[in-house]
């Protein structure tokens, strides 16, 4: 079901005109916009990061590892899923991988910056794209699975986001999330990435349960490289001048080394092991029937 954000009416007609109040969401850049006031400027991210991120992601060990873990979670826990929506799709790196690997899925994706949708469309033409604030999702029981990958840490009221996701997921469906882990790893890099927090596994599980979800699986990832991450944080004074993209850019030799280490870690993750520490958390949760 669709939800009119103007009057709260739920409807299932093909278009977006609300049959109750007649409101039609405006379009920005050819995309339906459900939060036009935030489409070009907001506190959650920087529009300037889309282009350098789009150039960085392909082949980068962290982004590639995250994609493989997400796809594994989708296939293992929601094998019958037919519809998938990603919230905060950024440059479309995740949805393009999901679309290639699981072509049977009907995919939708949202981004708060209208400009970001242009990158996503180039990577994954043909999917449904729209501009949206994750705190006001215009759907009710509409998707089998919703994903938000390194998104909710950018939003102060993450509890509201999780409640919106719960409403938008069909009963029996679920959510996949990735978030940065461990508060003691907080650094200037988090501030440059527009993070509001880093999570512990217990905190994330508690928030999901409060929203109504049942946690099925949670694990850290980038665990084998945790010592490198810790050293990097201890050297934070020397990194102060770097931008976020510069900090996550690494030499090709290190990228190959880290990719090999991540491959061993993935074997543990995909066999059901829950790793206790690492730079990020991956969680799968379901909405009861």
The biggest beta sheet reads: 9 strands, mixed
Ends distance: 17 Å
- Helix content estimate: 25-40%
Low-confidence stretches: none
Mean pLDDT score, rounded? Answer: 91
Radius of gyration: 19 Å
The counted number of beta strands is 11
How do the strands of the widest beta sheet line up side by side? 3-4-7-6-5-8-9-11-10
- Strand-residue fraction? 15-25%
Which structural class fits the helix and strand makeup? alpha/beta
Count of helices?
10
Order of helices and strands: EEEEHHEHEHEEHEHHEHHHE
Q: Given the C-alpha coordinates, what overall shape results? A: globular
Structural notes for this entry:
Helices cover 36% and strands 20% of the residues. The protein contains ten helices and eleven strands. A nine-stranded mixed β-sheet has the order 3-4-7-6-5-8-9-11-10, with helices on both faces. Helix 2 crosses helix 3 (93-101), helix 2 (61-77) packs parallel to helix 10 (252-269) and helix 5 (158-168) crosses helix 7. The two termini are 17 Å apart. The mean pLDDT is 91.
């Amino acid at each position: 079901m669709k939800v009119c954000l103007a009057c709260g009416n739920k409807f299932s007609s093909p278009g977006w005109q609300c049959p109750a109040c007649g409101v039609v969401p405006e379009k920005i850049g050819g995309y339906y916009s459900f939060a036009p006031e935030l489409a070009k400027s907001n506190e959650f991210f920087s529009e300037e990061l889309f282009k350098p991120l789009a150039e960085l992601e392909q082949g980068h060990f962290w982004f590639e590892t995250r994609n493989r873990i997400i796809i594994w979670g989708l296939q293992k826990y929601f094998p019958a899923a037919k519809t998938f929506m990603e919230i905060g799709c950024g440059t479309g790196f995740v949805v393009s991988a999901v679309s290639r690997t699981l072509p049977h899925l009907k995919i939708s994706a949202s981004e708060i910056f209208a400009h970001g949708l242009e990158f996503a469309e180039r990577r994954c033409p043909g999917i449904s794209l729209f501009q949206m604030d994750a705190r006001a999702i215009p759907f009710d029981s509409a998707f089998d699975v919703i994903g938000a990958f390194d998104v909710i840490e950018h939003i102060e009221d993450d509890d509201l986001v999780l409640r919106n996701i719960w409403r938008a997921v069909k009963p029996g469906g679920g959510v996949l999330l990735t978030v940065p882990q461990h508060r003691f790893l907080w650094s200037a890099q988090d501030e440059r990435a527009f993070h509001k927090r880093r999570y512990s596994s217990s905190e994330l599980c508690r928030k999901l349960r409060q929203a109504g979800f049942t946690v099925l699986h949670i694990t850290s990832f980038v665990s084998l490289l945790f010592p490198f991450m810790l050293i990097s944080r201890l050297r934070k004074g020397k990194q102060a001048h770097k931008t976020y993209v510069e900090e996550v850019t690494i030499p090709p030799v290190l990228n190959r080394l880290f990719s090999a280490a991540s491959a061993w870690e993935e074997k543990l993750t995909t066999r059901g092991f829950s790793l206790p520490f690492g730079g990020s958390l991956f969680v799968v949760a379901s909405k009861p029937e």
